[in-house]
């Protein structure tokens, strides 16, 4: 389906429903195609924030350095 910018602005909710149903919507400015509305692929996997990194923590990570004693 192709619509003009003006149509897209006034009928965005209707166009989004069509995109949710699997349709692609092309937006034109005059005769030039400038954008496309498509459904976003959902990511079902949980991202591991720290699991992405290489390496490991030092064994003494939780120990405070001796020069921090005045701040305790």
Describe this structure in a few short sentences.
The chain is α+β, with helices and mostly antiparallel strands and 72 residues long.
Task: Write a concise keyword list for the protein shown above.
2 helices; alpha+beta; YefM-like fold; elongated
CATH superfamily of the domain at 1-41: YefM-like domain
Order of helices and strands: EHHEE
Shape: elongated
* Uncertain parts: none
What summary fits the major beta sheet? 3 strands, mixed
Under the CATH scheme, which architecture of the domain at 1-41 would be assigned?
Answer: 3-Layer(aba) Sandwich
Report the radius of gyration as a whole number of Å: 26 Å
Per CATH, the class of the domain at 1-41 reads Alpha Beta
Question: Ends: how far apart?
Answer: 66 Å
Mean pLDDT: 87
Q: Return the structural class.
A: alpha+beta
Give the helix/strand layout.
Elements: E1 2-4, H1 5-10, H2 12-20, E2 25-29, E3 32-37
Can you describe what's shown?
With 72 residues, the chain is an alpha+beta fold. The chain has a domain at 1-41: YefM-like fold (3-Layer(aba) Sandwich), CATH 3.40.1620. Helix content is 21%, strand content 19%. It is built from two helices and three strands. It has helices at residues 5-10, 12-20, and strands at 2-4, 25-29, 32-37. A three-stranded mixed beta sheet has the order 1-2-3. A hairpin with a 2-residue loop joins strand 2 and strand 3. The longest helix is centred in the N-terminal third of the chain and has 9 residues, at 12-20. The N and C termini lie far apart (66 Å). The model has no long low-confidence stretch (mean pLDDT 87).
């Amino acid at each position: 389906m192709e619509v003009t910018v003006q149509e897209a602005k006034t009928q965005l909710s209707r166009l989004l429903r069509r995109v949710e149903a699997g349709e692609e919507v092309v937006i034109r400015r005059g005769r030039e195609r400038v954008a496309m509305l498509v459904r976003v692929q959902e990511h079902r996997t949980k991202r591991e924030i720290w699991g992405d990194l290489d390496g490991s923590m030092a064994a003494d990570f939780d120990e405070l350095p001796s020069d921090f004693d005045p701040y305790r």
